[in-house]
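Q: Can I see a sequence and its folded structure?
A: Here is a first one.
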Amino acid sequence: MFVLGSLGLVMPAFAMDRWEALSMIESGNNDHAIGLVGEISRFQIRPELWPGGNPHNPEQALTAAQKTMIPRLNQFERSHKRQPTDFEFYVLWNAPWVVDHPSAVVKERAQRFVNLVQS
């Protein structure tokens, strides 16, 4: 259940889905976006992390993003003994190595993500 809740698959009815918010923040929901270091899909996944499939297909991109996050969420939940907040979820996506001490730039993006999720 931890993983399902952390993946945003279980959420209050009033909240924006974490994955929709992540796609909006990362690419503006652009399935053909390519980032500065070659990130692909609406979720801007680094090419070396892309598990395969069509990055231009929204469903395949979502599956790839969720597969990318599962180990990060599991590690967070083991070390912190709880699920991540929306803020921490974004930091785990963007800069997992600094989840407890994100930079000012990552904090700003994480707060924008929180605002979308909680709107």
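Q: Show me another, different protein.
A: A second, unrelated one:
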Amino acid sequence: MAGKCDVCGKAKTFGNNVSFSKRRTSRDFRPNVQHKRLTINGEAVRLHICTRCMRTLGKSGKAA
């Protein structure tokens, strides 16, 4: 899977795991990116799209 959404550009970001003792170790936050075939202007296109964008497209009625 690609790590970046083709619609909104959401990509991996970085942060910290924080334990009970407040010790910090680095970690990454990855978006839930899926392969999806969408119809755009009557043409089938395969996109890497995050689930948040899928949900938004479904609400606007533009998802195929």
